[in-house]
Amino acid sequence: MSDIERLRSAAAEHEERLVAFCQKLIQTRSMPGEEANAARAVQQEMKALGYDDVWQDEVGNAIGVLRGTGSGPSVMLNTHLDHVSAGAESGWPFPPFEGRIHEGAVWGRGAMDIKGPTAAQVYGAALLKAAGLPVRGDVYVAAAVQEEVGGLGSIELACTTRTDSAVIGEATNNELRRGHRGRIELITRIGGRSAHASMPERGINPHYSLARFLLGLENISLSEDPFLGRETFVPTLLFTDQTSSNVVPGEVRLHIDWRTVPQRGPDEIRAELQRLLDESLVHGASGEVTVKEEHLHTHTGAERDVPAAFPSFVLQEDDPLLLASRSALSEALGREVPVRRWEFATDGGHLMAAGIPCIGFGPGDEALAHTNQERVPIAQLTEAALGNAALALRLTTPG
Ligand SMILES: [Zn+2]
Domain 3-181+312-395: which CATH class? Predict the structure, then answer.
């Protein structure tokens, strides 16, 4: 039997356990900062599957490794543990944390973002062991904390687990991805002076400056990348310092979600918005634009300051990592594997920025992320485990 045939039969034999593990992860709620139980479940499964070493790091990432036998390069299969809120349960076809199987798919919050892909990576490395295929380099499987709120876990991994390459397991429908736009969250603060609404002339109402700023945003010119497309931005949340409707507010804060391309960095975007804001201020209001920064606590009690910024990344079309991944997947899956970009941002930006080249491969449809229709087809889950095994094998073989 060839290596690929052995992996295929191991994948088929493990399908039932893989699906059960995916369901268990969906049943284990893990909002950002509350991933302790999910981290434990991932480590338990890795131990049961015979990983050489399994641990939790300082910030609470769950990590397992298959030790390589010789001098091959190392690889990290990377996903995350946390998920976004399920919102109102009544909007879901099935209870979001049940992990119901319906028409050949596993349904629920996190099915494809990110519990299904995590299960497929945990089992991907395990298939190598089950098929009796030794690897030349170390294969790390890491499920990181707090991806959904800035990537604290993978920022830590980029320092502590410096592999030669990484596979980001976010949903690709089992195609390949070689990049995505970045994301930053900016906060525009406009300060005025509070006063009784019956005497508005005594105050400085920041709303009038905000109105000019919002209109000015429509004229901002956007940068474009030939592969990633154009920057986009969306004014999202809007707050005032007041909860009483008969007071001139003293401050307004507008959050802006900005999807970035490599042609323009966060500093330049912030500076351009500050220029626009300076031109928009009237009646003596003052204002400042900043990149949001959060002080985050992890489930292990660690604390970090994390800016709300995911870098963009692009791996070149002829990059050896991409070519090797494409040929390994085509051989293992028995079909051509298209290469595209993701629309959303991932932890891959953090790893790439730290010098670890990344490709994207994982089960599930990107369009279902953060919706109440989240599901992952079982056939795709099993195929993704096989694909991850083939990627880990190829990417730890000296080039
Ligand atoms: Zn997500």
Answer: alpha beta
